[in-house]
Amino acid sequence: VQLGLPHVLLRNLTSCRVGFFWMDQSGFVLGLPRVPQVTGVRRNRKVAKMSLAPIRGGCSVGLLDLELPKGKGRGPFLARVFYPTDEEVGTPVRWIPDGGVVSKYFSKFFVGLPEWVSAVLGCIFAWVFGRAVIPDTYYGARVMKPKKKFPTIIFSHGLNGDRFIYTALCRSMASDGNIVFALEHRDGSAPSTIVTDGKTFERTEIEYRMLPKDSTIESAHEFRSEMLGVRVQEIDSVVCYVKELADGVEPLNLLDPEGKYRELLSSFAGKIDPHKLSLVGHSFGGTTTLLCCANHPNRYRSCVLHDPWMYPLPDSLKAEDGPELGTRFMMVLNELSVWPDNNEVVNKIAQRAPNGEFVTLKNASHHAQCDVAVMIGPLIAKAMKISANGEDFEPLYKSIAASLEFFRKHSHGEGFVPLTSDGLEHVESYRVEKKTRELSHVQARPTEALSLA
Fold it and tell me: d(Cα 274, Cα 149) in Å, to the nearest integer?
């Protein structure tokens, strides 16, 4: 029902519940409790639209897709920028900017099936989710004038991720008074991404890089280490660009060759603080975040690692006598991700992280921080092994609440936009507290870490 039922049969249904998703005139909210009214989306009585559920902070969110060529002292990168705005105008923002990308994205979940079957299933998902919109979010809206300059958060996605698949988390952080750069890494970890020529504006596609079937343990680690190196360079490039924005430099956005949003980028000067930098990453992105902290211990004010995949880390960081990690960070370990080797590395890092906080997210699968399980519905998510219990919206809300609480304590100071209680009641219920670094029982799973029950 969630995949194949034509929209035309649903367009006259209002405020009805069918299976595990809600429908109303403003859109579908799959896998989430129904929200009485989805604001920020133009209501269309003729065609119902699917929508991410609004997770409200202190303000609406502006959005801009950004691709920069190689510049002085930095490399190229592709990102989706989320930022606070007080201008609620513009057309709805699509969750996925390119339908072809979503087709390739979802087809990766059907790798075991014949290629033509996975391609067809990917197209079905593209048809269903290609029109999904993001509520309370406006493309190209002006940047809110802050009382104090906005901190910057750089987000790094996991394998088979991209710049839109963590939208709920990223837009919530932006709504709480941060400027968020959600990278789309071009190391081959995204299902499909692009590189635009700075002179001809022709686009070249970079497809997902599968690990060779004949890989040895050594060659597999070298393969992932190479990807990790690209990711770290791209984060360093964003850090350089944030300084350019703060100084009023106007590099060319290759996704905006006509310069329609050049004035918007110029307006970030005086509103973004290049010294208040934080990192967030999930899975492979969590590993990327950790390595960036090790490389630059004094650069980042605080970091959040969501269920990091430790395998690609350099052996020096995984060793018991590795360097101390002085950056303040919170590591969120999803309870249902049982990786004994991974948890062994977590144990070793915990002993060398004097400012580390370790949390267990109860009843959470590895993909709990992504939008996917929320959008496709609990039954399909469980069948595709994305969700272990079919209730992944609860861990997602808790991940968001814990992240916001952590950044409030360690990054914002007094300048953050205050949250409203609407949609973020979990913030008060799931406080992040300091936990001992003695994690002796995480060989199977991190049971001694703090539980967000």
Answer: 9
